[in-house]
Amino acid sequence: xxxxxxxxxxxxxxxxxxxxxxxxxxxxxxxxxxxxxxxxxxxxxxxxxxxxxxxxxxxxxxxxxxxxxxxxxxxxxxxxxxxxxxxxxxxxxxxxxxxxxxxxxxxxxxxxxxxxxxxxxxxxxxxxxxxxxxxxxxxxxxxxxxxxxxxxxxxxxxxxxxxxxxxxxxxxxxxxxxxxxxxxxxxxxxxxxxxxxxxxxxxxxxxxxxxxxxxxxxxxxxxxxxxxxxxxxxxxxxxxxxxxxxxxxxxxxxx
Length: 255
Fold this sequence. Notes:
The chain is of the alpha+beta class. The protein has 5 helices and 11 strands, in the order E-E-E-E-E-E-H-H-E-E-H-H-E-H-E-E. Helix 2 (91-102) packs antiparallel against helix 4. The protein is elongated. It starts with 10 loop residues before the first strand and ends in a 9-residue tail after the last strand. This is FAT4 protein. InterPro entries: Cadherin, Cadherin-like_dom, Cadherin-like_sf. One of its GO terms (molecular function) is cadherin binding.
């Protein structure tokens, strides 16, 4: 805008922005990622610039952003002792500080907290910012190099972030945890454990029944054998009327 003074100041915004993947710095027009974890493809963003004139004038354009799938091995998590809603509100400035102190292009992959319920977005004082760094040749910087430089620049980064958050800031480096455990994953794990316990209980029941049947069968055979042995040892047996009857040799038999 060629105007001088307030009329020449521009404010940038995303028009009808329904997506949560991107945001824009209203003063500079810089577009940055908020969360593109697990996403790839081309996104089309409608960007508007407006001046501060009495009759506000605007201009717009479409910006296409292509997100390439990236190796998760080079993602690094920076842990800030700040509330997640505060970090999200100042994420453009956080990105600027990291780029300035690390001297690499920084892409924000995701901003999250450990909470499952994202409704209470101001109840935690720990926020994780996942980043990927790219060098001048647009090549991914290894996670180890990023961590090393973050540790080297820790005090400088914290000093600059304190100016943004207006309070003491601690910026730590943490290994990226395995995919954040979601309630769905927990439910799946619990269900799997319950099914495993049910299977074990069923197998135990089957084995117990088999052993019990074997024991009954053995007891029955022992009783039968005892009855036979008792009949051999006692030459007198009871007839059907209950009277004693000697075991007699059949009449029609050979020697």
